[in-house]
Design brief:
alpha/beta; globular; 12 helices; 6-stranded parallel sheet; about 20% strand; 8-stranded mixed sheet; about 35% helix; about 425 residues
Length: about 425
């Protein structure tokens, strides 16, 4: 067994480019107990891998009641966040959800003849053959239900710019709960308007900030509550460090790093460290770490954004916390506690236990976006809590509300020009 686990660790580190837990001199490096699980292998053809079960490190138990889930914005197989949400629900990993419909305007419309559209059509056919799931081009094509008697969740995972209109259409389709992927809207004003529209229709909006329920975050927060030190949340992506790769990234994530990649960390600051625009006393960029570039994307249009950023916020209430994000830093996320210049604690995602899960899922989906895998259990947790809330009214513990979402977006809009000015 030890030999097998060693092989899994090696595969996870080399094939997935995921960093495992690291030990540092003088640092408390926590290593959860391992357990053996068979590695999914020999997967080939159609949805054979899609139908196979994989290791789920956190078993979730349903209340017995389910909410209908409408996935709004699926995206391409292996690439779209919505697609990965669908995979998890169709795998039965979200027991309080019942995925019935997938809304995909682009690949069922103008993008149908593209290469990705052809792949989507093949996946659609396999899903329809194996599951009672229907595909629609628009929310208006759905049968309308009474939100007072039929619990229905809209999981909105489309383009950020489309979210305001998608929320309106979801409410019209009888959805009484909205799961809204980050950052929710392009601007604070739009997200505030969405919040008001939902409230006027008695619809609850919860945000897909999965790091709020993440293991490494809770471990570090617990340690820091008992020990003095500066907490730093670190997020990495695995883009190639080239102008072409980063230019494509800047264009596809045109809202900017602080409203996209690092928005999860800002949500942690708002949720747990009393960070609001009004409560920020100072923000200081780490100029040695940080970088801003102006690059052209595939369309030829130039955009200016951070390719990496690190900063420390001090609040008026005396709290201090740091964030670091690097587009080309790898595929791990972690948090540290530093006291007097010495790192005294670190916890990573994935940790050694989760490396087994990462290797298994990559075996099923070798071409999928690498960042899906280490966050797999947290995506499940958020969907389960939102679905359970819709079905039973049970509080979605730890899940960010739209109020958190609005303030997080406010902080992002405040920080972006300030940090760019400091780095100019």
């Amino acid at each position: 067994i030890n030999t097998m686990l060693a092989a899994v660790r090696t595969a996870a580190a080399s094939n997935c480019a995921f960093a495992s837990m690291r030990s540092f001199s003088g640092s408390a490096s926590f290593r959860p107990a391992r357990w053996a699980s068979p590695i999914v292998s020999g997967l080939s053809g159609g949805l054979s891998g899609f139908r196979s079960s994989v290791h789920t490190p956190r078993r979730l138990f349903s209340t017995g009641k389910t909410a209908e889930v409408i996935l709004v914005g699926c995206g391409a197989p292996d690439k779209g966040m919505g697609w990965y949400h669908a995979v998890q629900m169709l795998d039965g990993k979200v027991p309080s959800s019942n995925l019935t419909s997938i809304i995909e305007p682009y690949f069922l419309g103008a993008g149908a003849s593209s290469d990705a559209g052809v792949d989507f059509a093949a996946w659609q056919g396999e899903v329809e053959a194996d599951h009672e799931v229907k595909f629609f081009k628009s929310l208006s094509d759905l049968p309308v239900v009474d939100p007072k008697t039929s619990p229905r969740v809209a999981l909105i995972s489309g383009r950020t710019a489309d979210n305001p209109a998608l929320l309106t259409s979801s409410i019209a389709a009888g959805c009484n709960t909205i799961y809204l992927e980050k950052p929710g809207a392009p601007t604070v004003a739009e997200l505030q308007s969405m919040k008001q529209e939902a409230a006027a229709n008695n619809v609850t909006v919860l945000m897909g900030y999965n790091k709020n329920v993440c293991k490494y975050v809770s471990k570090v927060r617990d340690f820091a509550s008992k020990n003095e030190g500066l907490v730093t949340f670190v997020s990495n992506n695995a883009y190639e460090n080239t102008k072409e790769s980063l230019g494509e990234c800047f264009e596809r994530n045109s809202e900017g790093m602080l409203k996209n990649m690092a928005i999860h960390e800002l949500a942690l600051l708002v949720s747990f460290y009393d960070v609001t625009v009004e409560n920020i006393a100072s923000v200081v960029a780490d100029k040695e770490f940080s970088s801003v570039q102006t690059l052209a994307g595939p369309s030829g249009e130039e955009r200016t954004d951070f390719d990496k950023i690190k900063f420390t916020i001090t609040t008026k209430s005396g709290k201090q916390v740091s964030v670091a994000a690097d587009r080309c830093g790898g595929s791990d996320s972690y948090a540290t506690v530093v006291n007097d210049g010495k790192e005294i604690f670190k916890y990573s995602m994935p940790d050694e236990e989760d490396e087994i899960m990462v290797a298994e899922i990559q075996g099923r989906f070798p071409n999928a976006m690498p960042y899906f895998f280490p966050q797999d259990p947290d995506y499940i947790t958020v969907k389960e809590r939102v679905s359970s809330f819709c079905a039973t009214g049970k509080e979605a513990e730890g899940v960010a509300t739209i109020d958190i979402g609005v303030e997080t977006l406010r902080v992002a809009e405040f920080l972006t020009p300030e940090l760019q000015k400091q780095l100019a």
